[in-house]
Amino acid sequence: MNFITQYLGEAGVILERLDKEAIGRAVDLLAEARSEGGRLFILGVGGGAASASHAVNDFRKLAGLEAYAPTDNVSEFSARINDEGWESVFESWLRTSRLRAGDVVMVFSVGGGSAESNVSANLIAALRYAKSAGARVIGVVGRDGGFTALAADVCVLIPVADPERVTAHTESFQSVVWHLLVSHPRLKVSSPKW
Length: 194
Fold this sequence. Notes:
Mean pLDDT: 97
CATH class: Alpha Beta
Strand order of the largest sheet: 2-1-3-4-5
Number of domains: 1
Shape: globular
Strand content: 5-15%
Number of strands: 5
Low-confidence stretches: none
Order of helices and strands: HHEHEHHEHEHEH
Helix content: 40-55%
């Protein structure tokens, strides 16, 4: 029971420390993008890819945003990795999608990417391209936010309650944040069945 109490206590600390102003700015940015016909592209690897897929469904169905996750098309995703390389997989997908000003790229990542450590190089390349194309960037990341925090127009940083569980807590609270976004009165256009 000690671990259960500790883990849930950490979750409570994170919930209290979430940056409500950053979440509000993400709502504003997404509402603006939707009203201007912008699209939402959600990027993530590992758990972030699974979250991206779920979030795309929610943003499309509940918030009426045209949304996509490159990792949902495993055939294209893996062909690009095989033929072009891991580092360029998201960037080339966004180029083919004709990413433009008015679009939004959202990133779900624990570390946010680090060029110095060669971690999540594919996210870094995609964000550099997104900025050059005039798209806006929202990060929902853990730790110090890494490259994503530096590149983002809005960064929701999931606070670290215990370094040993940064991945578990970050990935859990990414879900909390996107569900908050699609439920927000400024974004919600339809209700879930239950």
